[in-house]
Write a structure and sequence with these properties.
Its cofactor is pyridoxal 5'-phosphate. By secondary structure, this protein is an alpha/beta fold. The protein folds into two domains: about 240 residues, Type I PLP-dependent aspartate aminotransferase-like (Major domain) (Aspartate Aminotransferase, domain 2, 3-Layer(aba) Sandwich); about 120 residues, Aspartate Aminotransferase, domain 1 (Alpha-Beta Complex), CATH 3.90.1150.10. It has twelve helices and 15 strands. Bound molecules: pyridoxal-5'-phosphate.
Length: about 375
């Protein structure tokens, strides 16, 4: 089976991890500090906090934004469930804005219609690696006094109008799960351009501990003293995994280039095929392609999915509109809420997309698509 996504780990990655295992630090040490600096350089953020997963990054980002009971978060249904469920974890109400028909990214006009004086965060997702319309969304956020969160689990290394993902929103989250564009096994990060948000993110991921004497309520308790003012969790990424992250970041430009080649090879192989539609790229973005979201028309997605799986091709579907998970159904949300997201989901088929694919693999996948679509 050709998998739809897979990590690329080479000898330089292995050596970086082994070095840490032989050293004095396993958890929060110099490799974490270096990885966070490397992420800041790449993303254009002024502060990055590494965490244990993309889901943890979202939880930390919403907590840093001050999201709590009574607050609303406006987000996209075309994402992995964690973009929305991590806001629920903090007691917020989630509102789903429909997506743009072509990119499947959150539609700024739909967001504008849903923002109220209870909205605290607008959370978009760079679906497949294609950045959200950051300028339009930032305009809404600044006009309405809300924060923009960009879930960039698919898009580390993408740019929007020449600016890197990580510098576009108030808060950006990354995931380093093995199927993403780079990996730390499990892992993630929060990036921000706002020092206060960065400090709050750091504190939340570190149990809420206050260790700076100037900020303590009881500074004279003793030299051992540390205290907690607001609760947090332990979401610290270990040094062992941060070292893998730094090593993978060195390879990210090569990963992006190979993903771009595969994107073009699929487009050339499938461009003339009736019954499918190829993914969109807007002129002002330079995506790292995390997914290749083919659209299978005329209600034939399931049939093509099953034929390709039988052919040994690990196709996937990304994603069920989030409000159709029973978690959200049980809150009263219903199928059909976001028509563009429903239509996209009904057609979407993710072809294998990762740097381990050879040109022959890509051609084999494309041949399988053609056979399945022609029936
Ligand atoms: C993978 C993913 C997440 C969650 O990341 P994990 O590291 O798996 O917890 C969140 N949002 C999106 C869009 C994702 O693709």
């Amino acid at each position: 089976m050709i998998p739809y996504g897979r990590q690329s780990v080479d000898e330089s990655d292995i050596a970086a991890v082994v070095d840490v295992l032989r050293g004095d630090w396993l958890t929060t040490g110099p490799a974490v500090a270096r990885f966070e600096q490397d992420l800041e350089r790449l993303s254009g953020a002024t502060r990055c906090v590494s965490v244990t997963s993309g889901t943890a990054a979202l939880h930390v980002a919403y907590a840093a934004a001050g999201v709590g009971p009574g607050d609303e978060v406006v987000t996209t249904p075309m994402t992995f469930v964690a973009t929305a469920s991590s806001a629920l974890a903090l007691g917020a109400t989630v509102r789903f804005a429909d997506v743009e028909e072509d990119t499947a990214n959150i539609d700024p006009a739909a967001v504008d219609a849903l923002v109220t004086d209870r909205t605290k965060v607008i959370a978009g997702v760079d679906y497949a690696g294609h950045p959200i319309e950051a300028d339009a969304l930032n305009e809404i956020a600044s006009r309405t006094g809300t924060l923009l969160l960009e879930d960039a689990a698919h898009s580390i290394g993408s740019t929007y109008r020449g600016r890197p993902v990580g510098s576009l929103a108030d808060l950006t989250t990354f995931s380093f799960f093995p199927t993403k564009n780079m990996t730390t096994a499990e892992g993630g990060a929060v990036a921000t351009t706002d020092a206060a948000l960065g400090e709050r993110a750091h504190r939340f991921h570190f149990i809420g501990l206050v260790r700076d004497r100037d900020e303590m309520r009881h500074p004279d308790e003793g030299p051992w003293h540390q205290e907690v003012h607001e609760w947090g969790l332990n979401y610290r990424l270990p040094d062992v995994l941060a070292a893998l992250g730094t090593s993978q970041l060195r390879r990210l430009a090569a990963f992006k280039a190979r993903r771009a080649e595969i994107f073009v090879r699929y487009a050339e192989a499938l461009g003339d095929l009736d019954g499918v539609r190829l993914p969109t790229r807007r002129d002002h973005v330079d995506p790292i392609w995390h997914l290749y979201p083919l659209r299978v028309l005329e209600g034939r997605r399931r049939e093509v999915f099953e034929a390709m799986r039988a052919d040994g091709i690990g196709v996937q579907v990304n994603y069920l509109p989030v409000y159709r998970h029973p978690l959200f159904e049980d809150l009263g949300l219903r199928r059909g809420l976001c028509p563009n997201a429903e239509a996209f989901y009904a057609e979407e088929l993710s072809l294998p997309m990762h740097v381990g694919l050879t040109d022959d693999d890509v051609d084999r996948v494309a041949d399988s698509v053609r056979r399945a679509v022609r029936g």
